[in-house]
Design a protein that fits this description.
This protein is an alpha+beta fold. It has twelve helices and 22 strands. Helix content is 31%, strand content 28%.
Length: 481
């Protein structure tokens, strides 16, 4: 009987201890801190870590898709009519972008590397072959006309040459030529008097099997929040682009696949050489990718807003004070003077006038928004899509008859979708991590549950221990013989 009572009271004491321990662990947040410290140890660019391997050679396949806008009514446009375009695509390329010439510096706190990009055409994922023809604005001609429009003598000479060769405001070339380059007769003629001028033009000319210069990254050894953050690019400090307490990504879908632990209050920054600037993204919603939870971040409309809404974009008003409106950025200053205007595809989040000016523009959030889906525990990118549109500023130039009576318009040439989705092997590994995380994080609640369960058992046993005594008393005879 004594042993039985001892076991019962031991159960009660144990339930109280488990409850106290569980509540203490919940309040102290021990296990979440432990998990974060484990992640922080892995979030460092160091040989032998998974973070380094993913940074050096991203395991998930990256695809670059191009969608062209084929002009259907060139004569009407030259007569002052509205341009009508038809979207043709995608033309898909597998993108390989390993980090090369890796050199650790400053006792392992920094690492220098170049990011060589190679594009391989994927016919089975494309609308057609690279030999498909596209009619679009003649970008070399438009660039030359813009640059010499105020010089009557040169303008007349160039215009006469264009007439002799049949060059006009619009041209037809293959997908491969428009992307990777073709010899342009006008540029070739001008290179005779200007030897430093390249006679080959392509929207991504010299971009295949090349890199955009040396980056120096922080490894995260001193501070995990600095993991893969850029210190310098081409020897130039990037302090003006990022601050140390922000999570950063390089070139959108490229760069590190790991980042510090993510919260919904983070601001994610991406450096885009296409825009000659950084983009930032804010939390939008919770998502699930291949069964893994994530936070979706996307650039707000302010990224492409005019200087009235976003003063930081004033530098894209070229010449100074000449802002085109919200949703478009003039990047001619970093495109060798070519009148290139960048926007989101189909002028998504841009002023309505840009959509109205070109028949065939149909902006849709789910198709044209730039998004980044990140697992909040590990900071691993689950899915990302960088979507940008290349446009050309087209206007009537009196000194060039080739422009006819064309309306002033931001003419869409193509848009790109650079995307990546976590590969199946990495997803499986991450699911295991998530299961382990759930188990570890829930240990305090398991202890509390066990404490409540044992407490219930203790109360039940106490009640049953008293029941026999009362029952025996009730069975005593009222009168003794």
């Amino acid at each position: 009987m004594l042993l039985k009572s001892c076991c019962i009271y031991s159960t009660g004491v144990l339930s109280i201890l488990l409850l106290i321990l569980g509540i203490a662990l919940v309040l102290s947040n021990v296990f979440p801190h432990f998990l974060q410290s484990m992640v922080e140890k892995e979030v460092v660019l160091k040989n032998g870590t998974e973070a380094y391997e993913a940074w050096e050679n991203p395991p998930a396949p990256i695809y670059m898709q191009f969608y062209f806008f084929n002009l259907t009514n060139p004569e009407e446009v030259l007569d002052g009519g509205q341009a009508a375009v038809v979207e043709i695509g995608p033309y898909t390329y597998r993108e390989y972008r390993p980090m090369e010439q890796v050199d650790f510096q400053d006792n392992g706190t920094k690492v220098a590397a170049v990011n060589t990009k190679t594009y391989v055409f994927q016919r089975n994922m494309s609308r057609g072959p690279e030999s498909d023809l596209i009619r679009t604005v003649n970008i070399p001609a438009m660039t030359v006309m813009e640059q010499f429009k105020d010089s009557t003598i040169f303008a007349n000479l160039i215009s006469a040459y264009m007439k002799s060769t049949g060059e006009g405001l619009f041209t037809t070339h293959t997908v491969g030529e428009l992307l990777w380059g073709y010899e342009d007769p006008l540029l070739k003629a001008l290179s005779a008097v200007k030897p430093d001028l390249d006679s080959v033009f392509g929207l991504f000319y010299k971009s295949n099997a090349s890199n955009d210069g040396e980056y120096v990254f922080y490894t995260g050894q001193q501070n995990y929040k600095d993991f893969a953050r850029v210190d310098t690019w081409k020897g130039e400090s990037m302090l003006n682009w990022w601050t140390s307490d922000e999570c950063n990504m390089i070139n959108g879908t490229n760069g590190a696949s790991f980042h510090p632990v993510i919260t919904k209050n983070e601001t994610l920054y991406m450096f885009s050489s296409d825009l000659c600037r950084s983009l930032y993204a804010l939390y939008e919603e919770d998502v699930t990718v291949k069964g893994i939870p994530g936070y979706r971040f996307s650039p707000p409309s302010e990224v492409f807003a005019n200087q009235t809404i976003n003063p930081a974009n004033a530098g894209f008003c070229v010449p100074a004070g000449n802002c085109l409106g919200s949703g478009v950025l003039n990047v001619s200053m970093c495109k060798q003077g070519a009148p290139i205007i960048m926007s989101s595809p189909h002028f998504y989040q841009a002023d309505e006038k840009f959509v109205r000016d070109v028949f065939g523009m149909k902006p849709k959030k789910e198709q044209h928004q730039t998004t980044i889906d990140i697992n909040p525990l590990t900071g691993i990118i689950l899915q990302a899509a960088k979507r940008l549109q290349v446009n050309v500023y087209v206007e009537k130039i009196a000194t060039f008859s080739q422009t006819g009576n064309v309306r002033t318009v931001i003419f869409p040439v193509l848009y790109l979708n650079e995307s990546v989705v976590i590969d199946d092997l990495s997803a499986t590994k991450l699911k295991v991590i998530m299961v382990e995380q759930n188990v570890v994080v829930n240990i305090p609640f398991i202890l509390i549950g066990l404490g409540i369960l044992l407490g219930g058992i203790f109360m039940l046993l106490m009640c049953r221990q008293k029941i026999p005594e009362s029952t025996a008393a009730e069975r005593q005879p009222l009168l003794s013989s």
